[in-house]
TrEMBL record:
Enzyme Commission number(s) from the entry: 2.7.13.3
Positions of the Histidine kinase domain: 337-525
SMART domains cross-referenced by the UniProt entry: HATPase_c, PAS
Predominant location category: membrane
The keyword Cell membrane appears for this protein: yes
Protein name, UniProt field: histidine kinase
PROSITE patterns, per the entry: HIS_KIN (PS50109)
Keyword Membrane among record annotations: yes
Length: 548
């Protein structure tokens, strides 16, 4: 990469040097021609004022003495020729005697015969030359002839070559300095572009655009002045159509201020004295909706930082994924508990049969059948199959933990609530699991009550545990609030979001030494969406209990 850059730079330097030489040559040629022209016209003026020249031109005939005198002056002036012509343009003096008496060549005598001095470049009998022509005036003020002093063009080029030779060291010095500069620039550029070739850079840019377009998470890049420099398609959809898409980002494009699109994030990441640090799962509002944001700082440039890249997604989508994972884990736990319990029961029945006590084995089997039938009888009026399956699984889980799990007699729920089965499963599943954990492995009772009336549905989960800890009760439904350590405290926040999305509410209280969580949902026809950011109704607990 460095060699290619150096050779490219050298090629550019050579081209620029050649151009400079050409310009300088043309300029020197013009100056040389001007200087030679001034010498020529000065010599012509001197010759034109000589009495012998004036008399010879006025006579208009050849004169050997005149020709000799003019050639002596030519030698002193170091001119290539001095020609004297009469009014008819016939040569009276010339360096070559055989051309005396012949017409002057070049076609540039019109101006001198009109009484004006000129400097011209024309082709004569001796070749192309720079000429200085002056009219010859007699005593009466009449033009009686012309004097033409000339220097052939090789003389002009001789001056140019001499000047270029004197400038050659400077050209070589400039080329050497340019080469050294090219190597330094190439080395610096090589470090800046991570030793990548141009075609590799182009391929990476194409891959970057494809990756950004494929992401279902919004991604934006923000520079150190809080200006949006890059967004992917998903981010453009969430922020608005006026944002800059990646294909439109060019060196000439003007980055837009982040505050124009997302004031809340701009306020959160505004430049401060300390550099911006990496942050994960920040909850930031965007157009009134909660958004989860991950911030990755870019290269730092002083205390103000060097900008950042932010990836973000709708919190509702994240919560939905978390709920699905929670359901999957819950079903796994249910299956594991059922497997464990049925293995125990099979072992008991097998042992009784091996001991020759079939009557007792039959009694155990009938007892299990009766308990199952009684439990199913309690759920006969709950017509939401997924909720019934969840409660059956929780019963098995409770038996494994040594907890007395009950469904209150008279529980009922019509098939109309099947449309909200996900919310009901999430709420009942989280609340019952929290109740199990509240007992902390100690024997106790957990009771679930499900009811329905014209106004909606009510779910109560009651446990005999110690209650919610006083230090957590006020923020129990806040995301991350938990006394169980890092990574906990998300279940109740998710339940709250789903319940409030249907226009319902959730609260907790202490009743008769038991902790009761109550969920109320309006009838499906009366459901009204409310903001997930509103605060729940929370009753103070009188005794401490680990939260969910």
């Amino acid at each position: 990469m460095q060699g290619r850059l150096v050779w490219l730079h050298l090629l550019v330097l050579c081209a620029m040097t050649a151009l400079l030489v050409l310009v300088q040559t043309w300029q020197l040629y013009g100056e040389a021609r001007e200087r030679i022209g001034e010498r020529a016209i000065t010599a012509s003026r001197i010759v034109s004022r000589l009495p012998s020249v004036v008399q010879g031109a006025q006579a208009g005939v050849q004169n050997a003495a005149l020709n000799l005198q003019v050639n002596e002056i030519r030698a002193q002036a170091e001119a290539d020729f001095i020609v004297v012509g009469n009014r008819a343009g016939i040569r009276l003096a010339h360096p070559r005697p055989d051309r005396l008496g012949q017409p002057m060549e070049g076609g540039d005598n019109i101006e001198p015969f009109a009484g004006r001095e000129i400097i011209s470049v024309a082709r004569g009998s001796l070749g192309v030359s720079v000429r200085g022509k002056v009219p010859i005036w007699n005593a009466a003020g009449q033009v009686v002839g012309v004097v033409s002093t000339g220097y052939l063009m090789p003389a002009a080029w001789h001056l140019v070559v001499g000047a270029l030779i004197s400038l050659a060291p400077w050209f070589v010095l400039a080329l050497g300095l340019g080469t050294a500069g090219a190597m330094l620039v190439a080395r610096r550029l090589r470090a800046d572009i991570l030793n990548l070739e141009p075609e590799q850079i182009a391929a990476l840019v194409g891959q970057q655009r494809a990756v950004l377009a494929a992401l279902r998470e919004g991604v934006i890049a923000v520079d150190g002045q809080s200006r949006v420099t890059l967004v992917n398609d998903r981010a453009a959809e969430m922020l608005g159509p006026q944002t800059v898409r990646p294909q439109a980002v060019t060196p000439q494009s003007t980055p837009a201020p982040l505050a124009d699109f997302w004031p809340e994030l701009a306020l959160l990441t505004r430049p401060v004295q300390q550099p911006l640090s990496r942050q994960q799962n920040l909850e930031v509002m965007l157009k009134g909706q909660p958004i989860l944001v991950n911030i990755e700082p870019l290269g730092q440039s002083g205390a103000g930082g060097g900008g950042f890249v932010a990836g973000f997604r709708d919190r509702a989508e994240a919560v939905a994924l978390a709920d699905e994972l929670t359901h999957a884990r819950g079903f796994v736990d249910v299956l594991r508990a059922q497997t464990h319990e049925y293995q125990n029961r099979l072992h008991v029945l097998s042992g009784l049969l091996q001991l020759g006590r079939p009557e007792e084995a039959l009694r155990v089997l009938n007892a299990e059948i009766e308990q199952g039938a009684q439990f199913r009888q309690l759920l006969r009026d709950v017509q939401v199959p997924r909720l019934v399956a969840l409660l059956a699984g929780k019963r098995e889980r409770a038996q494994e933990l040594g907890i007395d799990f009950q469904v209150a007699e008279g529980s009922n729920l019509s098939a109309l609530w099947e449309r909200h089965a996900d919310t009901l499963v999430t709420a009942v599943g989280n609340l019952t699991e929290n109740a199990f954990e509240a007992l902390a492995g100690q024997p106790g009772t957990v009771t679930v009550l499900i009811g329905e009336d014209p106004e909606g549905a009510q779910v109560e989960v009651e446990d005999s545990g110690p209650g919610v800890a006083a230090g957590v009760a006020a923020r129990l439904f806040t995301r991350g609030a938990s006394s169980k350590g890092e990574g906990r405290g998300y279940g109740l926040a998710g339940v709250l979001g789903r319940v409030q999305a249907l226009g319902g509410q959730i609260k907790h209280t202490r009743r008769g030494g038991h902790t009761v969580f109550q969920v109320s949902l309006p009838a499906p026809g009366n459901t009204a969406l409310v903001s997930a950011a509103s605060e729940p109704t929370v009753s103070e607990s009188s005794a401490p209990r680990p939260p969910a």
